[in-house]
Amino acid sequence: MDSCKLKFPSSSLDAVISAETLEHVLEPEKVLKEISRVLKKSGILVLRFPNKQSKFKNLLTRLIGRPRFEIIEPNLSNHVKGNDEDLCYKASTSDVIIFLRKQNFKIIYTKPFFWPSALIVARKN
Asked: Cα torsion at 26, 14, 100, 84 (round to 10°)?
């Protein structure tokens, strides 16, 4: 299924869980908007991904208040061994939280932005 064009009607799901996916898409903003489209009002979103941006860049994103979504060239060779060499997006807790707030989500829970693994739970308003 294409994560930018989910095959669900608008406002049809009570919850969406995305684990270890966001960092592998070229357009994380589109994926998050599509998730917002299919979630009902007060629907719950649970996101988990590796927090790959540096602590400095995460902090800078928070201070500026604008998501940066750092897209990188993935390594798609046959020698990829599953150690995240195939990442498309240097996922950042700060990027995602700021973006979700602008999409009218309330952040219910998150790990600190400097943790190596991001976990965000949000409710659609």
From this structure: -40
Is residue 36 assigned to a domain? Answer: yes
Q: Are 13 and 80 in contact (CB under 8 A)?
A: no
Whether the Cβ atoms of residue 47 and residue 118 lie closer than 8 Å to each other? yes
- Answer for the pair 8, 38: CB distance below 8 angstroms, yes or no: yes
Query: pLDDT grade, residue 7 (50/70/90)?
Result: very high
CATH number of the domain that residue 92 is part of: 3.40.50.150
Q: What is the pLDDT of residues 55-87, one digit of tens each?
A: 888 888 889 998 888 887 776 666 655 565 667
Amino acid at 77: S
- Quick one: which H or E segment has residue 81? none
- Tokens linked to 115: 């943790």
Q: Whose structure tokens read 């973006």?
A: 99
* pLDDT of 10 higher than 90: yes
39 forms beta bridges with: 13
